[in-house]
């Protein structure tokens, strides 16, 4: 008698490492960084996707630098508006025209320094999806919120506004959990802290989409070569959104290799 297949097979997830260069770039520096990254990552397990979110003025240059590599080009933000009198903004259509594959939305620095609300972040995610860009929706609690025991409430609320706004496209999102207290501080969440938030986010997504098990959930906040292996081996951590370490070619390459090591052998 044939053995029945398990009803819920383990999801064959990929890993994904996205660099967020923030406001750090120069023509010469970008060329040197990506030449070194490209060289280090030749032969990387193809189940590891990598990419970089660059400042808007460098999109055209970096598009050329990534040509011929599997690296994804991304932006750090996109406008909530389609077009028109919005000085300083960059639309999803413009990002698309310059070859972007993804855009961050709702990074904590946008929320805290530029007053972005979850409602605005959700509209940005919808705009990005409408133009065929993958929104990387960033959520995360502050230290005060964590200490007050509000972590799960905060991140779920941030995500629920986006889920509601994008409707049936939820499964196309990438979600990045970035605890605000871990960003740029050198103090990453422990693998256990990050895993339990990721599991909660995936459970929340599962209510909205049958694709939740395949969705990429990234951790961000002081991920570096010394802590990457443990973080990336958690069952619900599918990769990283990397700030500082994405500016150092050997570090970013080491994180991608750690992601490859965390995957099951092919
Ligand atoms: O904000 C981040 C990525 O978006 C994380 O930054 P760091 O990796 O520098 O902590």
From TrEMBL:
EC number: 5.3.1.1
Keywords per UniProt: Isomerase
Isomerase listed as a keyword: yes
Name of the protein in question: Triose-phosphate isomerase
Upper classification of the organism: Bacteria, Pseudomonadati, Pseudomonadota, Betaproteobacteria, Burkholderiales
């Amino acid at each position: 008698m044939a053995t029945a297949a398990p009803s819920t097979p383990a999801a064959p997830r990929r890993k994904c490492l996205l660099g967020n260069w923030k406001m750090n770039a120069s023509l010469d520096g970008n060329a040197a960084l990506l030449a070194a990254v490209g060289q280090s990552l030749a032969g990387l397990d193809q189940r590891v996707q990598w990419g970089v979110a660059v400042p808007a003025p460098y999109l055209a240059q970096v598009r050329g630098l990534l040509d011929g590599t599997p690296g994804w080009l991304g932006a750090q933000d996109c406008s909530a508006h389609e077009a028109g009198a919005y000085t300083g903004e960059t639309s999803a259509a413009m990002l698309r025209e310059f070859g972007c594959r993804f855009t961050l939305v709702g990074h904590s620095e946008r929320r805290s320094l530029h007053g972005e609300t979850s409602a605005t972040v959700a509209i940005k995610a919808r705009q990005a999806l409408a133009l065929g860009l993958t929104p990387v929706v960033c959520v995360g609690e502050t230290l005060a919120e964590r200490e007050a025991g509000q972590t799960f409430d905060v991140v779920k609320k941030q995500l629920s506004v986006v889920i509601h706004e994008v409707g049936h496209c939820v499964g196309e999102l990438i979600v990045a959990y970035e605890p605000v207290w871990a960003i740029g501080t050198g103090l990453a969440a422990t693998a256990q802290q990050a895993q339990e938030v990721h599991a909660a986010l995936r459970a929340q997504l599962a209510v909205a989409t049958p694709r939740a098990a395949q969705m990429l959930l990234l951790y961000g906040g002081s991920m570096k070569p010394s802590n990457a292996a443990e973080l990336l081996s958690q069952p619900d951590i599918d990769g990283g959104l990397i700030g500082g370490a994405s500016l150092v070619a050997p570090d970013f390459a080491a994180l991608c290799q750690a992601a490859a090591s965390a995957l099951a052998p092919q």
